[in-house]
Amino acid sequence: MRHIAIVGSGPAGYYTAEAAVKKWGENARIDVFDRLPVPFGLIRTGVAPDHQSIKAVARRYEKTAVGDTVRFAGNVTVGKDISIAELRELYDAVVLATGAPSDRPLNIEGADAKNVVGSAAFVGWYNGHPEFAALDPDLSGRHAVVIGMGNVALDVARILSKTEAEFAGSDIVAHALAALQASKIETVTILGRRGPHQIMMTPKELGELLHLERASPRVDPADLPPVEDDAILEPGLRKSVTLLREFAAIPESIHGEKPLSLNFDFFANPNAIVSEGGKVTAIEVERTTVEAGRAVGTGEVYRLPADLVVTCIGYQTNTIEGVPFEERAGRFANDDGRILPGLYCVGWAKRGPSGTIGTNRPDGYAVIDLVDQDFASSSRKRGREGFDELAEARGLDVVSFRDWQKIEEAEIAAAREGAPREKFVDVESMIAARSG
Prior knowledge:
- The protein is 32% helix and 22% strand.
- The chain has helices at residues 11-24, 42-45, 52-55, 58-65, 84-90, 119-127, 151-161, 174-181, 203-207, 235-248, 252-256, 348-351, 360-374, 383-394, 401-413, 427-433, and strands at 2-7, 28-34, 70-74, 93-96, 102-103, 116-118, 143-147, 187-191, 215-219, 260-265, 268-276, 279-291, 294-305, 308-311, 315-316, 325-326, 331-332, 338-340, 343-345.
- The strands form 5 sheets. The chain has a 6-stranded mixed sheet with strand order 3-2-1-4-19-18, with helices on both faces. It has a 6-stranded parallel sheet with strand order 6-14-7-8-10-9.
- The longest helix is centred in the last third of the chain and has 15 residues, at 360-374.
- The two termini are 36 Å apart.
- The relative contact order is 0.19.
């Protein structure tokens, strides 16, 4: 019998569990731990609420989660309720699939001003993550600036721009929907240090901006390189740049029909946050040029009005006591997934925040191959039995997958008309719902 502990129940965690089941079948016992009482990680709290088709991948993970081979153990914080050293004593292999849940800091002057928030916090707020549900961003100002040129920046800009009706069918939480409905924001500026050829935005997400009811995207034609230069781009990026060219060609008369302006500001590096009374009022920006793929300042400085700033500049893994960490890369120190004997990492915790949800599948299968190579002999570890004894001794309130199903049933029952669910946004309510 192989005893495997997976820390983190998002895509990387469940793809790893799936791989373990396919490798060893009933000759394995896999425990999937999560600090929240609910599974699926960024599928639940990271993917945009209006992207329900992407969230549907959780149904695949459910097939892995039911039965005796794989067990969900929610409401258990590794590093607090149980240490990494203890897990390594109990299990043949411990795989860290904790993702990269924290924002990379915006290291510029004034970044600590009120209403300057990271995307992990802002996305967590409108997705109902218990850690960020009480964020309460101030949307009473006219100008929002979103820093970043990836899909997360697009998500944030799109959510800020939508009407209430456009959230039909989404699982955006009630407190965020009410705040967005009352929003006074008139301009959303997406700020990027480099140019159109360096964006990390995919065509599908960019194309959604063409269908917003109250906003249309603006691109300055002067920011676009000669069209013949697009030939060197890989096909996906070429499609994205073609969409930017389409945005640049939208006539002013169309923009004038929409009450919200959605602007792309390329070649713009944030230098400082300007505030009054501790609250952001503007962002100081330096114009850049791109040399050998890098943004280089030109010395030209200007200010953009900003009543809200959301930074979408990347994420980093949270440290855990006893696990080597690469500060600069923001991930666990590892050699292609191996950290220490019996300790591994996978997904964003291994490679940093890159790739799509599907990228985690080959990652999960690869790490199980490593485990198989490293542990050829039969196990003498206690695994699940040992953890259950420890949990009882410490009074841990472990949430099972069946408990989660009861929580989900309660969320579905509480949904507003047309919505798939109304999420519980605090741990206490989740715990209470399992016995409802």
